[in-house]
Specification:
Helices cover about 40% and strands about 20% of the residues. By secondary structure, the protein is an alpha+beta fold. The chain has one domain: 3-Layer(aba) Sandwich (Aminopeptidase). The protein has a 7-stranded mixed sheet with strand order 1-2-3-4-5-7-6. Strand 2 and strand 3 form a beta hairpin. It is globular, with a radius of gyration of 20 Å. The two termini are about 35 Å apart. It comes from Coniosporium apollinis. This is N-acetyltransferase domain-containing protein.
Length: about 260
């Protein structure tokens, strides 16, 4: 299945995919947006604000999964990766670059927008940014050898297109890049998504995003923090080479 780097014009489609994919999610759906069915546009606009803000963060990469229908490209999935620590060296922008001002500007614009047009799909406004505000409670898991990581910040596949391998392809992209950089991969998994991420290779659980006294995510379902460590990614590559070599040896035997 084809994936490509997102462009700015993709965001209306990306936001719609996120709203569809997370409609039944325990965090973005049930906990933060219990009134999403009454106010579906507000629910989608939540993702529009979030995605646009991270678009201007040059440690992030957004990729889209596409299908072709009626000879036209259709975006049906998205994956947003964040390069952390050494994984971002040489790829981001310098501290003095004026583009560093774009994300703070977008954050202020989002704050103003929310004040003028409050998110009506939210029942408790204090929870709207619960995941971001919870980050200090579990950020310590990204330390020492795991400080350098490709972190899967968000993955969304439209429900009508799930089960086609699109999500796995978006995950595989980040894992390939992490392997090239010699760093680990990481993700915070929802309760529903945990099994999927385990099958993708995130096989080392280290904690929960809900941990810590005062954490706004306390009591939320899911939130297990999963890693694929750098040495395991290297083993994956060795296994691929071994299988390929076995296939070559078998072909040689067959031609003798």
């Amino acid at each position: 299945m084809p994936i490509r780097r997102a462009i700015s014009a993709d965001f209306p489609a990306i936001n719609a995919v996120c709203a569809a994919a997370f409609h039944d999610d325990e965090l973005f759906g049930d906990m933060i947006h219990p009134l999403r069915d009454q106010y579906p546009d507000d629910f989608q606009h939540f993702f529009a604000r979030r995605n646009r803000e991270n678009w201007w963060d040059y440690t992030h990469e957004t990729w889209v999964a596409i299908v072709t229908e009626d000879s036209k490209e259709k975006i049906v999935g998205m994956g947003e990766w964040q390069r952390m620590g050494r994984a971002n060296e040489g790829r981001g922008i310098e501290w003095w670059d004026p583009r560093q001002l774009l994300k703070p500007a977008q954050q202020r614009l989002n704050t103003l927008s929310t004040r003028i047009w409050p998110n009506r799909a939210v029942k408790e406004p204090r929870l709207e940014n619960a995941f971001v505000e919870a980050y200090p409670f579990f950020h310590h898991h990204w330390s020492d050898a795991r400080a350098d990581s490709w972190y899967l910040d968000l993955l969304a596949i439209h429900p009508a297109y799930q089960g086609r391998g699109l999500g796995k392809e978006l995950v595989a992209y980040g894992m390939r890049r992490a392997k090239e950089d010699g760093v680990c991969c990481s993700v915070v998994a929802s309760r529903i998504g945990e099994k999927f991420y385990l099958t993708c290779g995130f096989d080392t659980p280290v904690g929960w995003a809900t941990e810590g006294e005062g954490n706004p995510l306390k009591g939320a379902a899911g939130g297990r923090i999963l890693f694929r460590d750098a040495d395991e990614l290297e083993k994956d590559e060795d296994e691929v080479r071994r299988v390929k070599n076995e296939g070559i040896d078998l072909e040689i035997e067959r031609t003798r």
